[in-house]
Amino acid sequence: MVNSDYLKELNEAQKEATTHLDGPLLIVAGAGSGKTKVLTSRIAHIIAQKKAFPNQILAVTFTNKASKEMQNRISKMLGSTAVGLSWLGTFHSICAKLLRKHASAAKLNSNFTIIDTDDQIRLIKNICKAENIDVKQLSPKYILAIIDRWKNKGLYPNEVIINQKDIYEKTILPVYKIYQQKLIDLNVCDFGDLILHTVKILENNTDIREIYSKNFKYILVDEYQDTNFIQSRWLNLLAEKHKNICCVGDDDQSIYSWRGAEIKNFLEFDQIYQNTKVIRLEENYRSTQNILTVASNLIANNQNRVGKNLKTSMEDGELIKLNCYKNGKDEAIGISDEIEKIKDEYSLNNIAILVRAIFQTREFEERFLKIGLPYRILGGTKFYERAEIKDCVAYLRTVYQDKDDLAFERIVNNPKRSIGDNTLKQIHEFSKKETVSLEFAARKMIEKDLIKPKTKMGLSFFLDSLSKWRNDLKVNNIGHIKLLQIILDESGYSAMLKNKKDLDNENRLENIKELLSAMKEFDNLESFLEHVSLA
Fold first, then answer.
1. What does the pLDDT look like over 161-212, one tens digit per residue?
2. Which residues have CB under 8 Å from 172's CB, separation 6+?
3. Is residue 315 predicted with pLDDT exceeding 90?
4. I need a surface site. Which of 25, 157, 206, 527 has the fewest CB within 10 A?
């Protein structure tokens, strides 16, 4: 049942943005102006007016956090009706969903794995080694950055036109060709592929494009100022039939051009879609007038902006204070002095220091330790990027998908099974020669008695275990949580951490417990692995 009071909670501009349903709409939303409220209210209004069923609405965000926030708000407004919002999520999660349905059109199997940056770097390093490219002269991270740039522009390797002024592109393009083919061979995708493959499928298959373009009667996009070429292209293809596309964003908050975001998507929206309605959300509910005045006067100097005038019903508030320091050390001293002045008036839990990058905390830490000021650092290594968590996920990936060489390589000798670098090198060579996966190569080499006896014992045990775990999953229907517990016990991974008792290993065991608990949120192994890859 839709809560009919949702319109009463909106100001005039928000209400107009919520109720204007027909045709393309650009909502220029200033900071703190209630854009999430508008998006959620708009979805509720579409359903309340019976303009579309929930599964005919596509709502796209940039982060899982924003997606979850929208889902929670909509659930409160719509109740059980919100269950049908199956197309609310991030660009990558929705594209992954589409790609799994049509994987064969991208020469993939539907159980493809999504790899992270570490896996990408390892793969690029292996390619560079095979192609005699010096990674000290041309770093894998830089190669990946160029490949990602090409993918953001919607280019497969055969579509790239080399910039003759760039001395590195001539070397990187052949690497891109090998890398992309290797991803197909391994049945894996990187993040860029999720959108690129989906766009190519929509472009090259009129019947598939028509299915989705016809189904999505309404499309809503958050943070539109941060979209790049390939994301915009994807949205345009899906909006082809109905053109009921509503994009929300703030041109003054466009800060991601360094990673491919194109502000012209926002600025030229009304040129792409005829009869675009533009609505400005200018009432700020977050800041005092002094903050808005300073921010508006600063941003007014920018060129290429739609423009808006932020206002608030709040008081003027305190004046903005700007301190300038010669270096990080002076900054740490100055800020610690400010904290000392106010710590009796305010709890330390109510005082925060925001930094742009984690390395900037070092000088603050040194200063606080010196003067005995208690502090906590929030952030650091993400949960799914911790070594023990990546190991667990690699085991599950290998069981789920036998072509995943990157996961296989990570865990084949983890814990130690007397499988050294020379053996791995031989397996790689055999794999390349026979054009098979590392796992299949290892099995064939044991069959042909090409592995040393001591190594053969450890490798055979590992391969037999993989077969047993796959049987547990597919034949015995053992759930993904129980499966991981079995893997950790039977592989010796748990014993490895327990046998060496120290604080680090105790923390690793606790992290694994947390992982097992987190896995309860997911129905099966596939949905869990998808979550991890998109987290």
1. 998 888 899 999 999 999 999 999 999 999 999 999 999 999 999 999 999 9
2. 138, 143, 146, 147
3. no
4. 206
Q: Are 404 and 188 in contact (CB under 8 A)?
A: yes
For the record, the structure tokens of 373 come out as 């000021």
CA distances from 488 to 29, 146, 180, 187 (A): 49, 38, 33, 25
pLDDT digits (tens, 9 = 90+) for 83-104: 678 999 999 999 999 999 999 9
β-strand partners of 249 = 28
Q: Which helix (H) or strand (E) holds 498?
A: helix 493-499
Q: What's the distance, Cα to Cα, between the start and end of the chain in Å?
A: 32
Q: CA–CA separation, 46 vs 35, rounded Å?
A: 16
Cβ 188 vs Cβ 114: under 8 Å: yes
The full DSSP string for 188-203 is EE-HHHHHHHHHHHHH
| Phi, psi angle pair for 120, to nearest 5° | -60, -45
* Whether pLDDT at 244 is above 90: yes
C-alpha dihedral sign at 174, 175, 180, 184:
positive
- Element spanning 351, H or E: none
Return the C-alpha torsion angle 495, 499, 502, 505, nearest 10: -10
Per DSSP, the three-state class of 115 is: coil
